[in-house]
């Protein structure tokens, strides 16, 4: 999704773009375009609007008009209402597969983007003034050269390994099981996040009285949860979430994802640049990961387009370093926040439980603090790319 979004951001720019994708977007085994529910922030909405796809994305999405955060077994709560901030919604929830279909359909009408799919990069060689790729497709092999290689092939990036870029990984020993359910009561366009000793449980509003579920379990128990009978698994969700939305039914397909934090030692290696989860993977607390990646897309597109207009080639060292300098503070802030939440919320110590619940209560009672937190959550805080500010690039 990150690579496709960048290609769209560079559409009709004069730059020649090749989008290399290993798995067809229509495949049931496409890892990006699966059945996950994605919570798109207001910053992401603005970016997709600038890319000319928001109208189609919105048709398949459900707004988040309210947010309810709680700590299981404790008194702390934070409740937020978009209307009090004079917003129609804090964001929208869309199924990854449906978002992928919109992005790939939009790609068909773009002359300067060549989609090479299915194909994989077998080898990377950096030359003096370009990068050479050896591609393997279903029918043959091919060679491709470029001025800039953007690596956006996910947390387990094989290209990152080929480039010799080291990573620092924190394994939280948690696994997220994602699925969707039908709820008995109207969800009221409310996104619920409940912190538990095992990790977060999120219920994100979808159309037709459905919710996307993120159910976190200890990794050593993940297989047993994946194999449970549907009715028993639904009961497990109810036991943690409660009956705010009544009885749960019609469990969807379950998929599991290990939860970890990944930081690379360098995001730039010569004419290669890491983007998305290949550069930074964070804990899903607060659903910030994909939204952060999209802001990186907006920042990179802005620098590449401005550089192109000034005659600066895409792989220019100073251009790439300028991009990274503009994005590193946001990346560090979001990564640090998501990690710190694991320290405070998945801890059974009474002292920490009392402190975090007192903080949540105070935040709920002090509107300016709550507003500042929501601006950060929507991706609007701090220095942001032009597309996030609603400006053209």
Q: How would you explain this protein's 3D organization?
A:
The protein has 393 residues and is α+β, with helices and mostly antiparallel strands. The chain is 34% helix and 30% strand. It contains eleven helices and 20 strands. The protein has helices at 2-9, 42-50, 54-59, 96-107, 158-162, 222-227, 230-241, 289-309, 317-345, 350-365, 367-377; strands at 17-20, 37-41, 61-64, 66-71, 77-81, 91-95, 113-116, 119-126, 131-137, 141-146, 149-151, 167-183, 190-196, 199-206, 210-218, 248-249, 255-264, 268-269, 272-274, 280-281. Strands 4, 5, 12, 13, 14, 15, 16, 17 and 20 form a nine-stranded mixed sheet that branches. A hairpin with a 2-residue loop joins strand 13 (190-196) and strand 14. It is globular and about 60 Å long. The two termini are 21 Å apart. The mean pLDDT is 90.
Brief descriptors of the model:
393 residues, alpha+beta, FAD/NAD(P)-binding domain, D-Amino Acid Oxidase, Chain A, domain 2, nine-stranded mixed sheet, three-stranded antiparallel sheet, 11 helices, 20 strands, 34% helix
Structural class per helix/strand content? Answer: alpha+beta
Quaternary structure of the protein: single chain
Low-confidence stretches: none
The radius of gyration over CA amounts to: 21 Å
Terminal CA distance: 21 Å
CATH topology assignment of the largest domain: FAD/NAD(P)-binding domain
* CATH superfamily membership of the largest domain: FAD/NAD(P)-binding domain
Quickly count the domains.
2
At the first level of CATH, the class of the largest domain is Alpha Beta
> In CATH terms, what is the architecture of the largest domain?
3-Layer(bba) Sandwich
Number of strands: 20
Largest sheet: 9 strands, mixed
Helix content: 25-40%
């Amino acid at each position: 999704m990150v690579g496709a979004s960048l290609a769209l951001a560079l559409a009709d720019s004069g730059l020649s773009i090749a989008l290399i994708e290993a798995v067809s977007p229509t495949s049931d085994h496409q890892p990006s375009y699966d059945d996950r529910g994605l919570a798109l922030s207001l910053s992401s909405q603005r970016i997709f609007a600038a890319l000319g796809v928001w109208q189609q994305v919105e048709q398949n999405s459900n707004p988040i008009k309210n947010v309810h955060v709680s700590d299981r077994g404790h008194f702390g709560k934070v409740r937020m209402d978009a209307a009090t901030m004079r917003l129609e919604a804090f964001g929208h929830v869309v199924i990854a597969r449906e978002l992928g279909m919109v992005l790939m359909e939009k790609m068909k009408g773009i002359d300067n983007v060549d989609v090479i799919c299915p194909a994989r990069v077998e080898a990377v060689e950096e030359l003096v003034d370009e990068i050479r790729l050896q591609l393997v497709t279903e029918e043959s092999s091919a060679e491709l050269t470029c001025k800039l290689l953007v690596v956006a092939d996910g947390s387990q990036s094989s290209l990152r390994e080929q480039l010799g870029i080291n990573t620092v990984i924190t394994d939280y020993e948690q696994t997220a099981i994602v699925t969707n359910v039908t709820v008995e009561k109207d969800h009221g366009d409310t996104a619920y996040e409940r912190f538990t000793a095992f990790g977060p449980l999120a219920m994100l509003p979808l159309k037709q009285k459905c919710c996307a579920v993120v159910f976190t379990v200890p990794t050593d128990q993940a297989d047993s949860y994946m194999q449970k009978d549907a009715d028993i698994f639904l009961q497990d969700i109810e036991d943690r979430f409660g009956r705010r939305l009544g009885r749960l039914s019609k469990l969807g397909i379950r998929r599991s994802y290990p939860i970890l934090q990944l930081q690379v030692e360098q995001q730039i290696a010569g004419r290669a640049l890491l983007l998305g989860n290949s550069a930074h993977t964070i804990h899903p607390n607060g659903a910030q990961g994909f939204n952060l990646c999209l802001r990186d897309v907006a920042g990179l597109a802005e620098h590449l387009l401005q550089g192109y207009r000034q005659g600066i080639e895409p792989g220019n060292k100073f251009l790439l370093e300028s991009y990274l300098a503009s994005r590193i503070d946001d990346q560090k802030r979001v990564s640090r926040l998501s990690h710190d939440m694991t320290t405070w919320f998945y801890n059974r110590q009474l002292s920490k439980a009392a402190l975090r619940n007192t903080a949540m209560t105070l935040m709920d009672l002090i509107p300016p603090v709550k507003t500042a937190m929501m601006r950060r959550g929507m991706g609007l805080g701090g220095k942001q790319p032009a597309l996030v500010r609603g400006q053209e690039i």
